[in-house]
Structure formats: structure tokens, C-alpha cells
Amino acid sequence: MRGALLLVFGLGFAACGTDQGQGEPDREPGILQRVTALLADVPRDSIVRLSDADTLHVSAATKAFYRKRVYRSAWTDGQRLLPQGEQLFAAIGRARDDGLDPGSYGWDMASTMVERLDTATLSDAQRADLLGGLDLVLSEGLSRYARDLVQGTVDPTQGGLDWRIPRDTTLEEDVIKAARTEPIDQVIARLRPAVPYYGRLMKALASYREIEARGGWPHVPAPEHPIRLRRAGGATPIALRERLRLADDTSESRLVRYGDANPEIFDDSLLAALAHFQGRNAIDEDGVLGAKTLRELNHTVEDRIADLRLNLDRWRWLPRELGERYIIVNVAGFELEMIEDGRPVVMMDVVVGKEGWNTPIFSDTVESLIVNPSWNVPASIAMEEILPAMHRDPRYLAIHHFDVLMGDRVVDPGSVDLSKADAYRFRQQPGPDNALGRLKFMLPNSDNIYLHDTPAGQLFSRSDRAFSHGCIRVERPKDLARALMQRFTRTPPEQLDSFLAAGKEKTIRFDEGVPIYMLYLTAWVDEDGTVRFMHDVYGHDDMLEQERQKKLEHPAAAGRGPPR
pLDDT tens for residues 366-379? Predict the structure, then answer.
């Protein structure tokens, strides 16, 4: 991303060398003196003291920006905040649209300064001091806002996540320069993730904040007795109906209105609305008001706003541009999407790593497809599962078509000495009961994680699909294989069935690697605007939220902590 932002923000200034304000109206000498006094002698990443004892941590990027301008003010003149400065001030105030806290970027401090400029009786020297300080606050605020939009507010590794996707960087100084000559909203938009998922989450956040402003939704009490369809259920159906009516889902709010005449009745429309709610909250859609469903219903709107903010930040950890074609696996959502030109062309459910065998979060490329794969059993699985199965049933290897190897030599399964188990390797032959199924999608990563078919298709009917040893089992591997063959090989996808029928292992290499991102997202918005929340299957959310709150609620830009 560093190169991308140099292209977006840097090239327009390459011919100038420095940004000294050529062609600008003259600045008030008093402001120049104030900015110079604040910045000229402070070391890198240092604290400057503003008027009224406020302090500001000034980053190296902000210092470099003013040094190249010979300490001229950027957003103010001798009397007022300039129009471009007003736009910047307003844009920082809109940081909450991205789930960020404007206070982290000095907006509260700037607001106080703007109010004093508008209402207080100030001497020329006082006004110059105030305008000089405001100029610095706005520049530093933009610098930090830009960095958080590009990199996220927290380092995911600090929240306990084993993050293996390279994170973007940006030259904040170039962003500040761009904001002086371009509409600030355009500058900010170019910093946000370009994927459509981010914009949908922003819209959902705005909607949930509107719900919060209206007072949120009611608590749904557990029923005193089992609720029966088309029967009165007391206070619970009434509260449930109101809860679904007030949520930001048009299908649910439409369905519950059909029962307005008799709100205490658990009618068919309320059942359908509840099932829809269950589906978008990762619960089996049985229409039963059980403990899991009540727990999800009784998350407050503030809880859901926090979920949306955290997942907006997760998108900011990724490269801004993911490519024209790529695959996303949402581990927390048990879902896969293949994206082309911003739209999903293949969507399916997946099975991911169970507890203790967590699927790692990383990016890679899918480089080949193996038809009728054999399975080389990892040593850990051999020790924990294959060998105990052999103890229970000496016929296990033959029944499940495993070869036993010493080095590269296949040996008689009957000759295996279980007391020297680490001397053997196990390989399952291609076939319908192979653990990888009939198709395997290869990724060249050190964890030996890949996508594959599975003979255990019944698991896809479950809402919780964390059952694997870390690899990704895909629901419709043929659909994914054909889509990849059509776009990335010269082999007609119609030949896939004949390759499968042949029963022989065959590798089909792609003309180019297909980018794939293994992500962990617990809030998601579909193309139609449906907001869905997933369970935190690996327990990452709480740790990350604590770290994010430290950053957002203790803003360094307002002088309460060192800059990142």
C-alpha cells in the first residue's frame, strides 16, 4: 500500500520539492511565529504546549510537513479558519462514520479552539496563538486519522491474534499535503478500504446508531412456559415482536406487523421473523426461543455497535485493494466467497478448524487444483487419531485404504510396530472415503492449510461448523473448481467430471495464483443490506475490543498518550 499511496498522494508534489505555500495569500506573521515557536526546537514525536495548558503530541510527519512549508500555517490565516480548514475540521468530526472516535484526532480540542475564535474577545497576539495551535491540531489529527484508516486502530497481534497478512502503510505527510489542494472527503475516501464490505458496514453502523438514538430495543424475557404456535404466550411474544420490529432488518419488521392485532400470540409470522433472525445470527433456524436465541436477542444495540466498529477495524488491517478476483474465507462465519469485480460469483458454506486446531488468519494464493487427491496424514493427526484407531481395530488401515510408508517405501500394514510409530508415515489412497474428498485446492503455506472436499457432507447443515484440523472443507467443491478452471486455466471446466471419473490423481495448475484471504469477521453485511453477526468461535473479539478501547478512549492526539 505504501507504493499505492505514493501514487495517489505523492506524485502531485514531486515537482515542487517543498510545500512552501507558493501562490497562497500571505499569512499573518504572528501565526508564523507561533507555529515556528511550537515546532522549530522540539525533537521527533514530541509534546508541544498549546494555549490554556493543552498539550499535543506532534508526529514526525506533521513536523516534516511544516518544516518543508517553512512553518507557514496550512489551515488558518491571521483572523480565521480558512475554508479548507473548515472542511478538514468537519471531516475529522465525521470519523465516527468509520467507527472511529473524533476525539482521538484532536477534534474536541479543535472544537474548543473554534468556539473561542467565534465567541471570545481576543487580542491580536491571543488570536495568533490560538490559530497557530489550531493549525497544528488539525494537521496532526489528519495524520493520525489517515494512519488509522489505512492500518486500523490496533495492531491485531497485540490482541492475541496470530496475524499473517501484510498491513499497509501510508505517508501521512503526503496525505496532509493532498488535503490542502483537494476536497478533503475525496482524500479520506481514497484511504478507506476499497472493498464493498467496508461501505456496507459503515451504513449498518449508521443505522444502528439511529436505533440507539431512539432508545434501542426491549429485553426479551424467557417464557415461563414453553411457547406453542398460534397460542398466547404472555409477555414474551409481545417483547419479541417489539424487539424484532425495532431492529434494523426490513424482513423481520415486516413479518411481525402481521400479528399487531394480537401481539401476545406466537403466530406464523412471528415464527418466520424469529427464524430469519436466527439465520442472520448464526443459530439453527428452528423458530424455537431457546437459550442461544435469547442470548442473541438480548445483546444491546450498544453491543452490536461495538461489534460493527471492531469489524470495520478488521477490514482496515487488510490491503486497501484485494484485486479484481480473489477468494475470502470468513473463518468466524464458516463461509467462502469468490469475488470478481466487487461481486460474489461463488458463495458456499465451509467447515473450519475446531478448538485447539484453529484455522490461522493469513493471505496466500491458490495455485493448483488436485483431482482425486491422496492424503498424506500429518504426524500430529497420525499420533492422535490414526494410531489409536489401529489399536482399537487392526483392520482400520485396510478398511479406510491407507498405505503405510517407511521413507518412500510402502510396507505391509501388518508389519507396523506400534511401539515405533514415529518411523512410519500414512497416506490415504484417492477415493470416495478419502478425508480430502475428491478435490483439493493447494496453497503454498508453511502451516499446510488448504481447501478441500469432504465425505462428511452432513456437517454443512450445522450452524456451528468448527470441526476440522485447521484446513477448510468446502460445501460445493465442484462449483469452486469449475469457476477457477474457467478463469485461470486453459482446461475446459466441462472436463472436470471425466477427470473425477478416471479415479487417478491429477494436478491442474492455474495460469496465475488466485489471491485468497483467511479472515475472522464477526459482523458482516450482505449485498441486500442484511446485517449478520457471527459467534466469536476462537474468542478473539474480547481481547481485541479491550485493546481497541485503549486506543480509542485515550486519544494521543488530545495530549493523553504517545503517538503510535
Answer: 999 999 999 999 98
Phi, psi (degrees; rounded to nearest 5) at 428: -90, 130
Alpha-carbon gap, residue 35 to 27, rounded angstroms: 11
Residue in 452, 457, 458 with CA at minimum distance from that of residue 430: 452
CA angle at residue 459 from 443 to 162, to 5 degrees? 40
- Residue ranges per structural domain of the chain: 2-195, 376-429
Q: What is the pTM of this model?
A: 0.89
Asked if 177 contacts 196 with a C-beta cutoff of 8 angstroms, the reply is no
> For the stretch 217-244, what's the b/e string if a residue is b when 16 or more beta carbons lie within 10 angstroms of its beta carbon?
bbebeebeeebeeeeebeebbbbbbebb
Active-site residue set: 452, 471
pLDDT band for position 480 (50/70/90)? very high
Nine cell digits for residue 173: 505527510
Give the Å distances, CA to CA, from 104 to 93, 278, 313.
Answer: 10, 36, 15
Phi first, then psi, for residue 426 (nearest 5°) are -125, 135
Terminal-residue alpha carbon distance, the chain: 19
